[in-house]
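User: Please predict the structure of the protein below. I'd like the answer in structure-token form so I can feed it into my own downstream comparison script.

Assistant: Understood. Taking the following sequence of 192 residues as input:
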Amino acid sequence: MSGSRPALPAADLARVVVFAAFIAVLGLFPGFAGVAGVPIVLQNVGPVLAGVILGWRLGTASVALLLVLTAVGLPLLSGGRNGAAFFGPSGGFLVGWLLSALVAGLIVQRFRSRSLPVLLLACLAGLLADYVVGMPWLGVYIGDVTGGIVQSLVFVPGDLIKVVLAALIASLVHRALPDLLPVRPASESRAR
């Protein structure tokens, strides 16, 4: 095994772990009463940030790590919730975090620029990806899919503010650490 390459280099593994911890820390901020048992929290911006800062692969891995730790019982979700939340009304939004980081990361990696408009687009798309999973799940949970989707609209104004803040934060991070997320060479993007 001396010639084999590790699946995830140490620096990447550290980024995944640190970002999972960052998302968990966002859960320390208390949530507010939301809709049908789904709280309004700051923590849901974490997966979007993971995607736009770390890229789709590492961002999704950091969210997956957090969700696995939560599933085994660690109270890392807002309000000290643990894996039991997967079986409640917010379970779809939690599962949607994986898609959120994936979509946001894919978009930011497809563009050669880390400009604010690109980051805003990626953050918004990541948020919408979470809604695609979370809103119908809530609807099924309460027994009325249309009602669940309509009730979930209460999250939109606050989440749009979080999207703008996430894009601004990501812009600052990419400016300070330009090599954090490598830009693909133009020749490589044309070849695909």
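That's the full token string. The beta strands are 32-35, 38-40.
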